[in-house]
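Bench notes, bay 3.
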Amino acid sequence: MTTITFDTQEAVIKLKAVGVSQEHADAFVRAIVESQNSLATKADIELALSPIKTDLAVLKADSVTLKWMMGVLIAGVMSVIIKTFF
């Protein structure tokens, strides 16, 4: 995972400027920093989705093959039906 840059000192100063106490500002900024450790980046998501994309590509290729096979099967059955009754 990638580290996200966050200026904690500037955040504390801005919070204090709007009337938040030093203790609350520090606690709030610590909570933000700790929560950023569990964020997923675009690269993390792409890495997790890579095997799924591969599986979907295989399924898509199989579905195309099945469509062709069903088409040929239906054409064969229709030709037998037409030959039998006409």
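Next record in the batch:
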Amino acid sequence: MKFTAQRKIKKVIFAALPFLVLLILWTAAAHFRWVASWFLPSPLTVFESFRDMVGDGVVLKIVAESALQLIPPYLLAVVFSVIFGILIGVNRTARDIFFPFISTLYPIPSLAWLPFIIIIFGFTMEAVWVLLFSTTFLKMIYNMIIGVRSVSPIWILAAQNLGLSRVQIIFEVIIPGAFPNIITGMRIGFASVWRSVIEAGMLISGIGGLGRFMWMAQWTFDFGKVFVGIILIAIIGFSVEFVVFKKLEKLTLEKWGTVVA
């Protein structure tokens, strides 16, 4: 028990070291004016901007707006990528039809579709949702297919010998067996959609959110607020990883013995 506690403390210290070094360098650069103060405000100035924004309700507002832009297309992309991943993974004909098409679309940046999406949907929330769904789906589908294809044929054969139906095999064998890749795909998809929602907020006017907030702060040369936005992006991404995905792992993979806690 004592060894485990010491190991956790050591792990936290090592993880904090790069942030501490960055904070020291940032403070020194601001204090000694290595960079113009309007461009690189001090950590104290950024903290005061953050405190004022929390007090005014601005942080809650822009985070809620970004969440509304992000959550619906992300969840829809998860559902569709799992469905198509299973279909393509277990069916050779579907794989022959869809895999070359997906491989062709995969390297195309999501923002390349933005002009067409804006022409069709305008500067609306629907345009943001379509953009985010397309980029997230394509980032996740590969991991879903690989996860399904990596399920041992012996497991499937054993399930068939036990009399399980095709649907039962999918839900009781294939999905649990592919779940490590599914969670990896969800992680990659969230990282992609989180970056894209910031970019979309900067490029599509009138939708609000964290990206629009940072874009407007840049044009007023309020770089303290820009840094607040950057820090919020990092905090939210970190929180989702360790609160959502780590918890999901504990409830599934660690419980099933697929990964070590």
